[in-house]
Specification:
The protein is of the alpha+beta class. The protein is built from 5 helices and 8 strands, in the order E-E-H-H-E-E-E-H-E-H-E-E-H. The chain has one domain: Aminopeptidase, CATH 3.40.630.30. The longest helix has 17 residues.
Amino acid sequence: MQPVQPVVLQHGALRLEPLAPSHEAGLRAAASDGALWQLQVTHVPEPDGVRSYIDKQLAQQAAGHRLPFAVLWHGEVVGHTCFHDIVPAAERLEIGATWYAKSHQRTALNTTAKLALMTHAFETLGAAVVGWRTDALNFASQAAIERLGARKDGVLRHHSVRHDGTVRDTVMYSLLRAEWPPVKLRLQQRLQASAS
């Protein structure tokens, strides 16, 4: 697998930019759209904590653990996503820490972003597998991951601490390189259908 380096990914109205302090104001506005930080099943920073969130993401990038992106839709910062848990020896990485402003949820944004990320992971980086993980109580996220074509690998019980201090079970998903071509075609067809 190729080294995971900062890169701009673009697909139609979507632009994924390497996360930077300059995205702070846009991420504050995105987090405020729907008070996302109050959700138990995902981690979104409070508006006043966005700078600290960015700093933490960039520190993990410097350590080689992740590549965070600001998500822009029609030029507006609307959320965050990243490659994380990068394991070059296993040719594996995960896509996650994804959140979007409430007004941009359940639109073509997520499918477009995941298509761009998976295309880069499989076709440029040469990943053998892309993974996802989500809270066992986050049924919307599980459904979205399954709509992408990922397969459920299982559940890690009592796996990690939520921001409210409770401990969650984590549902794991993956997609193998050999499974990618038909998944890519299906996602492209879905986006074409939603555009017409």
